[in-house]
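TICKET #2291
ISSUE: user wants both folds in one file
ATTACHMENT 1:
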Amino acid sequence: MRALLQRVSSASVSVGDEVIGQIGSGLLILVCAMQGDDEAQADKLAAKIAKLRIFTDDAGKMNLSVRDIAGSALVVSQFTLAADTARGNRPGFSSAAAPAEGQRLYEHFARALAAQGIPLRTGRFGADMNVALVNDGPVTIWIDTAV
């Protein structure tokens, strides 16, 4: 699985004019299931993110996790993280999991992250969403369980 994490002071996701998920301080997590991924990758990704020390402590060092700061997560599916730009100018997305499998693993990942004690909100799988965020730092981290 692939995830792009952004440390945020706030983030929200909307479908049309309706805000369907909103958080304060924490992580915006854009996530994509890849072909061949399974629950083990989703669980591994959730555990890694819950423990990742990318929030600053009193000394200004990145030493705290989202759990340590009592932060939240906004989890949004984003199949475009599977983009292959090696050939031509139009990205290919054939390495992304099929939609039904992608949705199943996205939902499993969200449950696994919640089980790590992270309060979360989600986007709507497959919907045309608008994501708004205030990137704190800015801090943006790429994680791929295949690497």
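ATTACHMENT 2:
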Amino acid sequence: MSTEESTIIEPKSRCPWLDESKADYVKYHDLEWGVPVYDDHKFFEFLILESAQAGLSWYTILKRRQGYQDAFSNFDVNKVAEYDEGKVEELMLNPAIIRNRGKINAAINNARLFIKIQNEYGSFSDYIWSYVKNKTIVNEYTNLSDYPTTSPESDALSKDLKNRGFKFIGSTICYAYMQACGMVNDHSLNCYKRKQIIEEYQQD
């Protein structure tokens, strides 16, 4: 047997919350979760998806991600901001998304307010990264029970967004949003992705 044939490839160690039996979930964890986002288009996508998650599991939304992309104009914030009542009724009949009128209306409302923040700060990215002083917060968790659902930063972000009129954007949703967009690196201490992100996205 050659050296190559006898080499044992050790499985990657990943976060304790991840169900590794779901290939799409593993892909999301490995390629996106916790990777710093600076693009407003991606921030808007996650805003729609995370607000749709309220009261549901993230995987429930992840499975419908393509459906949301198709339903919400490829997450074009300017197009979504122009949606009217007729579009809301159309979306209420779309089985590819969560057909919750409140969440659909929130997506449209939040799109309009998202644009206002862009105009005020130059970009939504500049606005939201200020809540972590423009640097990813790196936490040290090992067990599932270690993970918080909110933080002082998510509390402050949620409060300001609510004051601006955003809907479905409580502190728990904001914390999940910050985790997804890499404002917080919550990959567990034994997860291979934690160190990779720290090394790849060294921030001043």
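RESOLUTION: both attachments delivered.
EXTRA DETAIL ON ATTACHMENT 2: The radius of gyration is 18 Å.
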